[in-house]
Amino acid sequence: MRWTYFIVLQIAVISLVVVLVYKHQSKVALVKLPPPALAQWYKPENKRQVWLHNMFKLRRELQAVQFYAQQQNSTYLKPWSEELAAHYLKIGEMVPSWQHKLDKAAIAAITTGVNNQNYDAVLSAINSLQRSCDACHDDYRAVTALTYRSADFSNITIEAAQPFNRHMASLSKQVNQIKIASQDNMPELAISSLQELKLGMNALGQTCRHCHKNERKNYPNEAMQQTLINLEQSLNSGTIKEQARALGTLAVQACARCHGTHRVSADSKKLLLKQPTLLELLRH
């Protein structure tokens, strides 16, 4: 009888969890996080993007094996299939916890098919292997790219040891202060805010150069600098419409384009890697 109560209690708890998950499915997104062992194959823990290079090789080798199997060309098929097997099995060596995810049966079938010149078997095994790769990519590719390939600005400081996020917030305030002063006919305040914005943009540019070392276009680039000149001229002698146009152009050139690349991925990464508290979990 006691076991009956225990089993009923377990069923009730599981049912409650299922109901809660179902009722909140529109508010919760399930994401599979990659294993920590993957970090050692990405920068900065590794000097080279070793994991990515292995993936690139696999993609090329899959295509080559499929191509030469379709052509029934055993001369080129065999060396490409050997490279494919070696780099595919390397996944399990690099991340041991993913050993069980490998479709070793498909690799064995490719090898056997190549040795027996059974090209239909090779093509069938390639299709099976591709489905296995696609399933893993669906689970991990996007979150892995966010985790290891998107920028992390949390440890960056600007001049006077100012945190990066605080500096960016000050730039946003200066842009809005220019707009407010322009709209309310306070040209001196607008121009002084513009001068502060220029200094802030130049300080930010020094930080950008740490990653964008080989790019000819610095921040602020020539187009932004010309827009800054146009904005200052319009604040001195132009109409409110001209001022708004110049400020809007600057916002697109100096803010929106970089945010589209960096801010979206950085914010997503921060949200993804945040460790929720017990209270936050209970609230959800």
Automatic annotation (TrEMBL):
Chain ranges passing through the membrane: 6-22
Keyword Transcription regulation: no
Classification via SUPFAM superfamilies: Cytochromes, Multiheme cytochromes
Pfam families associated with the record: Cytochrome_C554
A biological process term (GO) from this entry: electron transport chain
Record Gene3D superfamilies: Cytochrome c/b562 (1.20.120.10)
One of the record's GO molecular function terms: iron ion binding
Keywords, in A-Z order: Membrane, Transmembrane, Transmembrane helix
Domain Cytochrome c-552/4, residue spans: 207-263
Protein name: Cytochrome c554 and c-prime
Origin species: Colwellia chukchiensis
